[in-house]
Write a structure and sequence with these properties.
single chain; C8orf32 fold; 13 helices; 11 strands; about 15% strand; globular
Length: about 375
């Protein structure tokens, strides 16, 4: 290495200038050279380790094409492709996008779809008309903005900056699904407030509004949390039950291949007067635990599927694993990511350790 040769040459010149004998110079030069080369080797090794760790933690970037495999069970892939085309067009301030069919156009421009999957556009973009290509059946979707295009572009840019800020402040690219879901659950609990006096503004998007002001109600929090999970690659959707004694919404998420109910609303610190910690009761719940809690899961609504307003949903949303749920007012203490341990305190003040990675491995086996 040329750098090594230069250092050695400088050392030899420096030693020679001290007036040492020829024998001493040779001995000292050999020792100094070995010492310098050893130092350089160690430094290079340390640099490689640091570089490797740095490369693993890639900063999050905004994903304009979020995707839910669970919703895709009911929504054809060409609809998703068309929706991605719409998102790309919106980011460029365009008014047309390639679309596979009129049915796909209807789904892509549905206000609920936009609110949940591309929040800045919800209630600010409307369908205009669909132009079918005679030979293929495909066509062009035409949209219109309800605000000036320049204003929408600023709104979109601010929203994307907000999302990347949330992700980079709370999760890392090498986190497991469990860790990302938990960290974003804690983020929601710490930063959002239930708006008991909410007055719905139908001229704006409820998901976007909740992101920006950090206030909302259950359906808002369910969608906000689901959207953050989709941004990091975790399948998640907002679901709701409309029972005689319980109208409520929360998030259904797929963690390591298994479905769970996660309720960010009832985790909010603001909902627990005088409590300065975050309950884990509503994180990764099974159907059984969700039912016990009074929110029945036998006929959940999902607004992203077309038949939502007709007969609720035909989606199957199983959540049969309860091994990750910590009930009875267990509160979060700390997360030891190196050893994969969740530290929590039960309702009696007793401290516990939960080995979440081992639990996931056992389930996979």
């Amino acid at each position: 290495m040329r750098f090594k040769r230069i250092i050695v040459a400088v050392l030899i010149a420096a030693i020679a200038g001290t007036g040492c004998s020829a024998v001493d110079i040779t001995d000292n030069t050999v020792q100094e050279t070995e010492s310098v080369e050893s130092f350089i080797t160690e430094t290079e090794t340390e640099t490689e380790v640091v570089t490797s760790e740095t490369e693993a933690l890639v900063p999050w970037e905004f994903n304009p094409h979020v995707y839910s495999p669970k919703i895709a069970e009911r929504i054809p892939e060409d609809y998703w492709d068309s929706f991605n085309n719409l998102c790309d067009a919106l980011r460029e301030g365009e008014t047309t996008f390639e679309c596979s069919s009129y049915e796909a156009f209807e789904w892509c421009t549905d206000v609920s779809v936009l609110c949940n999957l591309f929040p800045a556009a919800g209630a600010k973009v409307e369908p205009a008309y669909f132009e079918e290509t005679e030979t293929t059946g495909n066509g062009t979707g035409n949209i219109r903005y309800t605000i000036p295009v320049e204003e929408y572009a600023e709104r979109q840019a601010d929203f994307e900056a907000l999302i990347t800020g949330i992700l980079n402040d709370n999760v890392e690219s090498d986190d497991s699904d469990y860790e990302m879901a938990l960290k974003l659950y804690l983020y929601m609990a710490n930063n959002y407030e239930y708006d008991y006096d909410k007055d719905y503004d139908y001229d704006d998007n409820f998901v976007y509004h909740t992101f920006m002001c950090k206030k909302g109600v259950c359906v808002d929090f369910a969608s906000v949390y689901a959207y953050l999970l989709l941004q990091v690659g975790i399948d998640a959707i907002s679901v709701g039950c409309f029972e005689e004694n319980m109208c409520h919404s929360w998030t259904y998420a797929v963690i390591d291949g298994r479905g769970y109910h996660i309720d960010p609303t009832w985790a909010l610190k603001i909902n627990n007067d005088g409590v300065d910690y975050i309950y884990l009761d509503y994180f990764l719940m099974s159907d059984k635990e969700r039912n016990i809690d009074g929110a029945l899961v036998h006929d959940l609504t999902v607004s992203l599927v077309p038949e939502y307003w007709i007969n609720r949903t035909s989606l199957t949303l199983p959540a049969d694993d309860n091994s990750f749920n910590l009930r009875d007012y267990c509160n979060f203490e700390s997360l030891d990511e190196e050893n994969k341990i969740l530290n929590y305190v039960d309702m009696y003040g007793n401290e516990h350790e939960f080995y979440y990675e081992q639990n996931a491995s056992d389930k996979a086996a």
